[in-house]
Design a protein that fits this description.
The chain has 123 residues and is mostly helical. It folds into two domains: 66 residues, no CATH class; 41 residues. Helices cover 58% and strands 0% of the residues. The protein contains six helices and no strands. The protein is rod-shaped and about 75 Å long. The relative contact order is 0.11.
Length: 123
């Protein structure tokens, strides 16, 4: 059954250590490991896990990672800060009640927004 596990596991490194970890498992755990591996592979895909961050197979086995609870919700993209684009800068200005001046650059508007945010933080 190790050949099946090895064939499925997406990171093929340290095969000797993986074999040693596999041999330590109880025979009834072998099927459990292989069954759980399909879910973990799906999880790594959903999360967009780079291969370098997938555990070594021996570590995955030794740490009994097949018993981990998996959250299949796709990762959330971090929100961009208000100053990262002109559109977000304008939205932040209007949120704070700041009207851009005619001829004002976005750098100047961002400075006025920052000043307003600082004032609100000290109140």
């Amino acid at each position: 059954m190790f050949a099946t596990f090895w064939g499925l596991y997406p990171k093929k490194v340290a095969k000797g250590a993986a074999i040693k970890a596999w041999v330590k498992l109880k025979p009834e755990e072998h099927r459990e490991v292989i069954d759980a591996l399909a879910s973990h592979i799906k999880y790594w895909r959903v999360k967009g896990t780079d291969k370098e961050f997938i555990p070594y197979p021996a570590s995955w086995l030794n740490q009994m990672r097949w018993l981990d609870e998996l959250d299949f919700e796709p990762p959330k993209k971090p929100a961009l800060p208000w100053y990262s684009s002109e559109e977000l800068t304008l939205a932040k200005a209007f949120e704070l009640g700041i009207t851009p001046y005619a001829g004002e650059s976005y750098a100047q508007l961002r400075q006025r927004i920052s000043t307003q945010i600082s004032r609100q933080a000290t109140v």
